[in-house]
Write a structure and sequence with these properties.
Blueprint lengths: L1 H29 L6 E17 L12 E2 L9 E13 L2 E17 L4 E3 L2 E3 L4 E17 L7 E20 L7 E22 L2 E11 L5 E14 L2 E16 L2 E17 L1
Antiparallel strand pairs: 1-2, 1-3, 1-13, 3-4, 4-7, 5-6, 7-8, 8-9, 9-10, 10-11, 11-12, 12-13
């Protein structure tokens, strides 16, 4: 009887050990390790609105407020954006993102206006160019309260470089002025992701920064990510960005918005 009991105990221990191995493998399959590196590329199709006040040498009277879609016009453009996230320890990661917004458009202004110390008379045909180079780096922490929800706070720094040029393109006397400068903001915000099923995730991102009462930016975007193979996902969404700056006597409040599509690779 003792021998039989020992055999039963050995069988129970062996079965439990086997089930433990199987259970661990199942858990790994359901909750795989976080990727070490994630690369993302987006194509954004953006429209814009807002205003500029660009002076020459901070001189009083060397600028008037000019409005996009009135004194000058910018066409919708395709905008590239790239990002990368490197996981440094479990849920901790460092992220970088680069976005280049360059828009052009031609319009006849209904009113006189002054840009960078130069008068543009009403009725002149004006080719306008305006762009931002946005580059951010931040620390990210992924928190998963359950198997469906993922919450990622961000804390970092956002650099921006602005450039603009207005030139006449009609038969009249040529007028051509341009201006560029750059600055930065502290960055913070949060991403929220919800798994709708093992291959589909809904994400919402809210990022922003402040460097004074009228110097701030806001980036809001949301959309769907579809995992086509374990390491590759496709995305589709919509974004809204507002950039307000006050550098010396130059001021602006510009809004960009539109759909986006992207590719994400993780390994």
């Amino acid at each position: 009887m003792v021998g039989d009991g020992t055999a039963v105990k050995r069988w129970i221990l062996l079965s439990a050990f086997s089930l433990g191995i199987g259970g661990a493998a199942w858990c790994q399959e359901e909750a795989p390790e976080l990727p070490r590196v994630t690369l993302e590329g987006d194509a954004e199709y953006l429209r814009s609105s807002g205003w500029l006040f660009i002076t020459r040498g901070s001189e009083p009277g060397s600028a008037t407020r000019i409005h996009e879609r009135r004194e000058f016009g910018l066409d919708s453009e395709g905008v590239p954006a790239f990002g990368a996230t490197a996981r440094i320890f479990e849920a901790h990661a460092l992220g970088v993102r680069l976005e280049s917004i360059d828009q052009k458009g031609t319009r006849s202004s209904p009113d006189d206006f002054v840009y960078h110390g130069t008068l543009y008379p009403a009725g002149r045909e004006i080719s306008a160019e305006a762009g931002f180079l946005l580059a951010g780096v931040d620390y990210q922490y992924l928190w998963r309260p359950n198997e469906v929800l993922g919450i990622t706070p961000h804390l970092g720094f956002e650099y921006w470089g602005f450039s603009s040029r207005l030139r006449t393109v009609d038969p009249g006397p040529s007028i051509d002025e341009k201006r560029s400068f750059s600055s930065g903001y502290w960055l913070s915000g949060v991403d929220v992701g919800a798994r709708l099923d093992p291959r589909v995730e809904l994400r919402l991102s809210l990022l922003g920064g402040v460097n004074g009462a009228d110097r701030n930016f806001l980036d809001v975007r949301g959309g769907f990510w579809i995992r086509v193979v374990p390491a590759v996902s496709l995305s589709a969404g919509y974004l809204l960005q507002e950039v307000r700056f006050h550098t010396s006597t130059n001021r602006a409040d510009l809004l960009y918005y539109g759909p986006s599509a992207g590719l994400e690779i993780s390994f």
